[in-house]
Amino acid sequence: MARHKVAWLPGDGIGPEVLEAARMVLDASGFLSEYLAGDIGWRFWLKEGNPLPERTIELLRNTDCAFFGAVTSKPPTDAMRELPPRLRGKGIRYSSAIIRIRQQFELFTCLRPCKAFAGNPGNYRDGIDIAIFRENTEGMYSGAEWDRVPPEFYTVRGMERVAKGAAISLRAITRTASNRIAGAAFDYARKRGRGRVTAVHKANVLRTTDGLFLDEVRRVAGEYGEIGLDEMHIDNACLQLLRDPLQFDIILTTNLFGDILSDLCAGLVGGLGFAPSANIGRDYALFEPAHGSAPDIAGRDIANPVAAILSAAMMVDWLGEEGRAKRIEAAVAEVIGEGKVRTPDMGGKDGTSEMGRAVASKLGR
Ligand code: ATP
User: Fold this and answer.
1) Residue 252 contacts by C-beta under 8 Å, 6 or more apart in sequence?
2) Which residues, judged by CB distance below 6 Å to any ligand atom, belong to the binding site of ligand 1?
3) 3-state DSSP assignment of residue 33
């Protein structure tokens, strides 16, 4: 009997391949779920002028959580150029499917663990184990952008500093969202017995927005006396991550900085093929590998599915099956430690499906 109901969203590029490998592992682990396939991605932009059809939103509403591969996103001008003529002139505008899901379902926490598994030839240093908490609904990803400053903006004090004719993006930071993401990071630290949270910001330049973010972080930190709080500028954090990544435990930051830092941290532990992620809200969550659709390697059975498999483990954990999640992670650790199966990003010749089978075989014993 299926215990859970998961929306299954393979998407574009390597999404379907890595999800198939993750599915092998989920099945071998004995995880019992119904998987309901959903339409998402570039194909649906080209077919319907909407990469996230309403029926997919409905599907998400009727499931416990979603498991997602990747979607191809292109700049708006390219997206409009590729839209079939029959769909033009109807006021259709491209917007990122995944950002819409994060905002619509208020999946405010983006958790991206970056762990150096022993034996991974891509490790920058052994022992790295950093969990990044990235605010997921606002900041530079608010979606408020103008290709020219609207004239009425110039009636607002301070706007005279902005050149006429500039394109602008709005960086919105709220107390509510800052408080929620800080709470999620400190809760995680407490539950997992982790000692330090490093808040990464640029409050010396982005005084008002990052000032507010830091203010909320400090307020939340006050409720978790046993957990230390460090504060670090984003530029210094990049330097420190390369100098001594072991000084970091949990990183807590805003949307864009978190996006960039999570790729940097993925690079420290073998690359994007090792970076899982979870987008978590109050009562819904979506799990996905942190990488994109990687069109350069799609359809060739060479993508590393470990990020997707670890994302599946995070999903199983979130659904309350911690023991099973730990076993999946241990199976990944065992395969990497043995070094017999390695995908091309690890310097090997094994394929996506081979890696999936290897991890699954450790669970099916
Ligand atoms: P997005 O903006 O959608 O996140 P991106 O431009 O950051 O996408 P990705 O699709 O994540 O790009 O790919 C970046 C690079 O990493 C590409 O060269 C890709 O081949 C490689 N890559 C991504 N995922 C994997 C994977 N699972 N295994 C091996 N290589 C990968």
Assistant:
1) 133, 181, 182, 185, 197, 198, 199, 200, 217
2) 14, 18, 73, 272-273, 291-294, 296-297, 303-304, 307, 345
3) strand
CB contact at 8 A, 313 and 276? yes
- Please tell me the distance between residue 298's alpha carbon and the centre of ligand 1 in angstroms: 10
Beta strands in 56-167, from DSSP E residues, in sequence order: 65-70, 109-115, 129-135, 145-146
Write the pLDDT tens digit of every residue in 88-139. Answer: 888 898 888 998 999 899 999 999 999 999 999 999 999 999 999 999 999 9
Instruction: Write down the pTM of the prediction.
Output: 0.94
Convert the pLDDT of each residue in 138-182 to its tens digit.
999 988 999 999 999 999 998 999 998 899 999 999 999 999 999
Give the Cα separation of 315 and 286 in Å (integer). Answer: 8
Bridge partners of 114? 130
Which run of H or E residues covers position 287?
strand 285-289
Ligand 1 geometric centre to CA of 9 (Å): 18
